[in-house]
Hints:
Blueprint: E1 2-6, H1 8-14, H2 22-29, E2 33-37, H3 39-52, H4 55-66, E3 71-73, H5 90-99, E4 103-105, E5 124-125, H6 127-136
Parallel strand pairs: 1-2, 1-4, 2-3, 4-5
Helix pairs in contact: 2-6, 3-4
Amino acid sequence: MDRIVLDTNSLIQSIPQRSRYHAIWESLEAQKHILCVSNEILEEYAGILQRLTNEEIADYIIKTILNSSFVKFVTPYFHFNLIEADPDDNKFVDCAISANAHYIVTNDHHFDVLQTIDFPKVDVITIKDFCNKCTNK
């Protein structure tokens, strides 16, 4: 079972039932993959969801994540600071490393720098490619 980290945009795109990427959320609910999150990531999810929807919907989604069996909570004790172009993205990298995640799912090109780093190795996959993996399993 793959452990993944979803950047905030990937999470937001995977939740709506009409989204072409909803198969990702369904794969989590079906426990085909494990979503790895840290407190920092949950705070960002909540803040962005509140801005895009409303507090009630954001709370529902966060509570769903908090109470789900498809979620692994991680506390990164070391900050690798591998993404210099957007340091805020490092929370996803640190979580992925701490959780020994298979992928960070993102379309954010700031993560491209991870392809040039041999250690610690963090694999990045686009939301479209990961969605294709979800529908092929």
